[in-house]
Design a protein that fits this description.
Elements (H helix, E strand, L loop, with lengths): L1 E4 L5 E5 L4 E4 L13 E3 L11 E5 L30 H14 L7 E6 L7 H15 L3 E7 L6 H8 L4 E6 L4 H7 L9 H14 L1 H7 E7 L2 H10 L13 E4 L14 H16 L5 H11 L12 E3 L9 E4 L4 E3 L11 E2 L3 E2 L1 H18 L20 H31 L7
Parallel strand pairs: 4-11, 5-6, 5-12, 6-7, 7-8, 8-9, 9-10
Antiparallel strand pairs: 1-2, 2-3, 12-13, 13-14, 14-15
């Protein structure tokens, strides 16, 4: 059982056993969370993948202070000149042919870096190879900092029928240039905005439909500021980030601080007000993502024994680095590879990772009231047990707030006789 309080002061219980919320009563204080035993998965299935992410290069033309490839993060590579070879790209094509879901209507290939556009010629080559195999079934996506979006690159991207372009923008010039600097230490904002303006001017409909923005923040206070300034830039106005990421935790950096429950609560209070007033932008979107944690939950009783479900059992995505090593996604550290494009997936590499994850869940999660909403996945293996305990506290804070504001929203809808259309 977990006790929480709504903004109006109403005391409520969350019952993990039945996944239900009810009014607080003192007699329930003696009830405890059930002890759950988590069973380790025994198989790895990589035969039906629909999204392949290829690391084209480990070079980058920016030196963002928070980048996980800055060299300051444990078990992660640093920026270097390594680029995937044409020979290996040929192996990647064969790997995709062997492991792509034969029945999927679409297969997506994402180009990743470093700065992927520094390997543009190789992107052109493999895109041509895959298009000749899959035709209209193939979809492409690119992650870029936007610095290399020159006119010729824009023309090339616009020539494709299905090619998404994901550009990272961290707010206005002051916010963006604080962390996202060039190799020479200059801000990158002005050049990127000029490139985006050119893209929108030449191909307005393609820009609106296929260019997506990502943002990276330290704190929820930064998200507030992001929402305030985003529409001030004409080329960004109304074109809000599809994803806002928080910078990866670095517990070795003693100077880093992390948002308290109070900071998060203050943010979501403002986001709630924006949401019920019809905001469809950054604040309203952030609130929607919070309540989605609770909304639509299953009400079946929590079993005492549970089979762990991870991405490994039915891999829908796969990350391929410049050496051809395979990972479930790009968020895994270098020590968590599960195969190579030449040999395929290797259970001798994958099963120990599943065992480590299962052992940790059985150590840390059986008594946790938040286990049914917890979003911590296999990538938690990037961290030590002590680091994960800190991250668990952060996740519980978020879930507590999700419960609080989910109930606030339900109360608001009941009081106003109005259900918000999402």
């Amino acid at each position: 059982m977990h006790k929480f309080t709504t903004s109006s002061g109403k005391c409520l219980w969350y019952d993990v056993t039945n996944n239900r919320i009810s009014l607080y009563s003192k007699d329930k204080e003696q009830e405890t969370c059930p002890v759950v035993c988590f069973n380790q998965p025994a198989t790895v299935d990589g035969s039906r993948i629909t999204m392949f992410t290829i690391e084209m290069t480990q070079q980058c033309n920016l030196r963002c202070s928070y980048c996980c490839y800055s060299g300051s993060y444990r078990d992660r590579r640093a920026h270097n000149e390594t680029e995937i070879s044409y020979e290996l790209l040929g192996d990647v094509v064969e790997f995709i042919k062997s492991h792509a879901d034969k029945n999927a209507p679409e297969i997506t290939v994402c180009f990743y870096g470093g700065e992927a556009l520094l390997a543009r010629k190789k992107i052109e080559w493999i895109a041509g190879q895959l298009y000749s195999i899959y035709g209209q079934r193939i979809r492409f996506s690119l992650s870029t900092n936007g610095l290399a979006l020159t006119e010729s690159v824009i023309d090339w991207l616009a020539s494709f029928e299905h090619f998404l372009v994901n550009v990272t923008i961290d707010g206005n010039k002051m916010m963006h240039d604080k962390c996202r600097k060039t190799i020479t230490g200059k801000g990158s904002y002005d050049t990127i905005i000029k490139n985006l303006e050119l893209f929108k001017r030449k191909y307005p409909s393609i820009f609106d439909q296929r260019v997506r923005f990502l943002s990276t923040v330290y704190s929820w206070n930064d998200v507030k500021q992001l929402a305030k300034v985003w529409d001030d830039e004409p080329v960004l106005k109304g074109h809000y980030p599809v994803h806002i990421s928080h910078i990866l935790p670095d517990f070795l950096d003693s100077a880093r601080s992390y948002d308290s429950w109070e900071v998060k609560d203050s943010f979501y209070r403002e986001a709630f007000i924006a949401y019920v007033n019809g905001d469809k932008g950054i604040m309203g979107g952030s609130f929607q993502k919070l309540v989605n944690i609770i909304d639509g939950r299953s009400l079946h009783k929590l079993p005492n024994e549970q089979n762990i479900k991870t991405c490994f059992q039915e891999l829908y995505s796969c990350f391929i680095n410049v050496d051809g090593d395979l990972y479930a996604c790009e968020k895994f550290c270098g020590t968590a590879k599960i195969g190579n494009v030449k040999c395929g997936f290797d259970e001798q590499l994958a099963l120990p990772l599943l065992k480590a994850f299962s052992d940790r869940k059985n150590k840390l999660c059986p008594f946790c009231w938040a286990q049914r909403f917890c979003r911590m996945c296999m990538t938690s293996l990037n961290y030590t047990d002590e680091e994960i305990k800190k991250m668990c506290n952060m996740e519980r804070d978020t879930i507590d707030l999700a419960l609080k504001y989910y109930c606030d929203l339900k109360d608001w809808e009941q009081t106003n006789h109005k259900k918000i259309q999402r």
